[in-house]
Write a structure and sequence with these properties.
- The protein is mostly helical.
- About 65% of the residues lie in helices and about 0% in strands.
- α1 runs antiparallel to α2.
- It is elongated, with a radius of gyration of 20 Å.
């Protein structure tokens, strides 16, 4: 957040909030997937189908990872470097996704 301007800082804080709220929602969904909570141990109880939740959670995690890694790209393109070096730096930033 200290690398860029106020706009990059705001974007980073927004992504921090989104990821934090997403994590909180995931934990609460896993805890309260059955009503009452102790019904999770009872195989005959009615609970939320957790498989679609896990798939949606994975998709949202991938999306937030890509967005978070793409945040400093605008900063890289405005550096006073040759285009080849800018491209290499942006590529190195995206290697963090692997």
């Amino acid at each position: 957040m200290r690398l860029g301007d106020a706009q990059l800082r705001r974007r980073a804080m927004f992504m921090f909030a989104v990821v934090g709220l997403q994590a909180r929602a995931n934990v609460l969904t896993c805890i309260f997937q059955c009503t009452p909570v102790k019904a999770i141990w009872d195989l005959t109880s009615h609970c939320v189908d957790i498989n679609p939740f896990y798939l949606a959670n994975a998709a949202l995690n991938i999306a937030t990872d890509i967005i978070t890694h793409a945040l400093p790209i605008d900063l890289v393109w405005h550096l006073q470097l040759p285009t080849k070096q800018k491209f290499g730096l942006a590529l190195m930033l995206f290697l963090g996704l692997l």
